Amino acid sequence: MAVRATAPAAMFDFSPAPGQPKPELYAELLAAADAITAGEGDAVANMANVAALLGEFLPRLNWAGFYRAIEGELVLGPFIGRPACIRIPFGSGVCGAAAAKGETQLVPDVHAFPGHIACDAASRSELVVPVLRGGAVVAVIDCDSPDPARFDAEDAAGLEALATLLAERI
Ligand code: SME
């Protein structure tokens, strides 16, 4: 991976190598997310850049981004993809299940998930990982794919490591 911040414009150039094994890909994604959020205290800026990284590093996604936990519901945060549902109650859909349980939701077929919220009709599979701070869910990271069963346990482990990294930065 090439990580380059070009002064004075501070342009970041993250170039994941194509076709790498997922653990390596996620290690590079994590390093890029660490580099781009380190020392930046603005949560929106950090979520926006990490959403962009998800789109650059992870193939076959139609949506990737954040929902923030605010007063018992999830509110749309920075993302890449089509415009999405703005507010999701805890317990509703895949994101709401992740937030209510504080557990990753790996959904190979969204049509088989009771209560799935179809923000983008193209979505076929989904992975949602909670971001926990002090034991409380403060956000979820949501990735959608147009391919059935796009995500596996390695994707879940990778996004969970990302969630841990971001817990104090968003
Ligand atoms: N499908 C999600 C809603 C969010 S969108 O996918 C961006 C859900 O069921 O919670």
Structural commentary:
There is one protein chain. The protein has four helices and eight strands, in the order E-E-H-H-E-E-E-H-E-E-E-H. Strand 4 and strand 5 form a beta hairpin. The longest helix has 16 residues, at 22-37. The chain has helices at 22-37, 43-57, 93-101, 153-166, and strands at 2-6, 11-15, 63-70, 73-81, 87-89, 105-107, 125-133, 136-145. The mean pLDDT is 93. The protein has one domain (22-166): GAF domain (Beta-Lactamase, 2-Layer Sandwich), CATH 3.30.450. The strands form two sheets. The chain has a six-stranded antiparallel β-sheet, with helices on both faces. A two-stranded antiparallel ribbon has the order 1-2. The protein is of the alpha+beta class. The structure holds methionine sulfoxide. Residues 63, 84-85, 88, 93-96, 116-117, 119, 123, 126, 142, 144 line the site of methionine sulfoxide.
What's the arrangement of secondary structure elements?
Elements: E1 2-6, E2 11-15, H1 22-37, H2 43-57, E3 63-70, E4 73-81, E5 87-89, H3 93-101, E6 105-107, E7 125-133, E8 136-145, H4 153-166
Antiparallel strand pairs: 1-2, 3-4, 3-8, 4-5, 6-7, 7-8
Bound molecules: methionine sulfoxide.
Offer a concise description of the structure:
By secondary structure, this protein is of the alpha+beta class. It is built from four helices and eight strands.
